[in-house]
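Pipeline run #58 for the internal structure catalog. This entry was flagged by the ingest filter as a single-chain record with no existing model, so it goes straight to prediction. Upstream metadata was stripped on purpose; only the residue string is passed forward. Reviewer on rotation: M.T. Logging verbosity set to normal.
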Amino acid sequence: MAILTLVPTPIANDLPLCPATLAMIQRGLENDGIFAVEEHKAARRRWISFGLPRETIDEFILYNEHTYEQASQALLSELKKGRDVYLMSDCGMPAFCDPGRKLVSLCHNAGIKVTATPFANSVVLALALSGFEHKRFLFEGFIPLDKKERRATLQKSLQSKTTIVLMDTPYRLKKLMGELQELNTNRSIFLACDLNKENELLLRGSVDQVFKKLPDEKKEFVMIIGDRNE
């Protein structure tokens, strides 16, 4: 099945892509992948600076705030046909506080795998991969150990209308899921486990749906709870 890959690029124009990202792009080129970019001029300049083939530039798909509605449907159609799509930003992480979120969400809803090339910030990466609205979000971080404090923290967090970011240790993941079940929240969640690793696992759905798909082995994770409109 085809994959949507988010391709973050360096914020500074003079910095190179990491070797792992370049290798993933090269594989995409060899396999007739589609590359979607924000602006042709900026993308062309950076593409050449990364040492990537010029002949691909004419095939770029424009994906930004003006084109994303139509482009999302076109790219989703190509993904369903089996062609991989690579979504690149002019700088930074695509789908983080930008229109790429729409395409990520459509892919999750269609059962299409979403991943990303290497990125060092797990919270930003998890938010981008979630497809949830996150123009504003509550970063709760690691929740307390004490049972009463944990419950109080979760209850207070769930009162927020915005997207919520939660973290905890791998061996308390199932405990956290159980606590969310006890609170009977009907909000969708996204669980990003072992990001950027070979055994990366991304799950999105209700608390019950995600809990049922959890493997037995312990995994590092970031949990995103969607806003009340998700």
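catalog note: The longest strand covers residues 137-142.
catalog note: Residues 130-225 form a domain with the Methyltransferase, Cobalt-precorrin-4 Transmethylase; Domain 2 fold (CATH 3.30.950.10).
status: ready for reviewer M.T.
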